[in-house]
Amino acid sequence: MLLATGANAVLASATTAWVLETERADAMGATAAVALLAVDEKRQPKGEPALFHAPQPAWMEWRGDPGHVGCQLTLANLPAGADRVLIVLYTYAATGPVSDLLGCTLRLNGALEHRVDLRGHGEAAIILGECYLRAGQWKFRALAEGSAYGLAALGRRLGVALDESNPERRGPGRERASSGATGTGFAVSQRALLTCAHVIEGMHEIHISSFEGRHRAEPVMVDSRNDLALLRVQDVVLNPVRFAGGQGCSLGDSVVAVGYPMAGLAGAGAHVTQGGVSGLFGLHNDSSLLQFTAAIQPGSSGSPLFDAAGEVVGMVTSSLPDAQNMNFAVKGGLLLAFLQACHLEADQGGERTTLSASDIARRAQPALWKIEARN
What we know:
Blueprint: E1 2-3, E2 8-10, E3 15-22, E4 32-39, E5 50-51, E6 60-65, E7 68-74, E8 84-91, E9 103-108, E10 112-117, E11 125-134, E12 137-147, H1 151-158, E13 180-187, E14 192-195, H2 197-200, E15 205-210, E16 213-223, E17 228-232, E18 242-243, E19 254-259, E20 271-279, E21 289-292, E22 304-306, E23 312-320, E24 326-331, H3 332-341, E25 347-348, H4 357-364, E26 368-374
């Protein structure tokens, strides 16, 4: 039985076997892998995730080989509170898109089949499906839900730390493979910038660059839970942004994102996108995030989100690629609290005048820097 994306089917029992095949079988275990996440109906994590290189939890067992990755699930043994399992295909360290695997086929119990053409997926991780319990019956739902910034970013969204590194290229006596990440940062004082933690995590060499030059930076404080990182520079004086005072922003307010998406591909200069505040909570009613509709891309992480007066109301952190501009930003109030905890007093408020997007971009430009992080 061939399942279309979004379709579901009944599983014969709580003991389920599946096999995943990709068109690039040589990549599995080398540059890509599969993860299983036990969650509840609100996608809150329960128990330990199942990764290739981690001890196997009691509810699953890996089988097969890289060309035919297999698994036996004993769904009745899921951790307390879990009523579903997410099957996630991802690339190690988010160093490339899953589209490199070309296509994949997931077969369950020799009876159900879900095919996904990965060529149009630029994300570094994708949820292929979920086994879930409904009215005492186990079912499978076919999905193709991407996470642009990889498995670790998906984990942060769900509230769990996930190790997406290649187990063959780390550990005692071994170096991680050469890898890198780019993002955006913005000055919050004359010597410090804010960016997303996921841009610099695990990286040993960090530079900031703009038309004003390229400089070495070092992390001062990292809050992985809220995806915040404070960087310090020594050899350049920065031009800090101004934060919005009061409540920050309201539902429906216009916002402008300015950053460096798709570095090396979209051109050297900063890019500007416009949209509105579409929600005052993140997934699972996460009050630390707001939702907005201004388009973003990989590399936009860490971009400041400005209101109509050109004041910062948030920092771009993630998106749901299949949800039509459902993008997320850490709220300005949390950014200010983080800076205060770092003993930095940010510039707040002032005379408010409605500005055009071009005026906002022009004023923001001196505070913006491309982040280049390498291992």
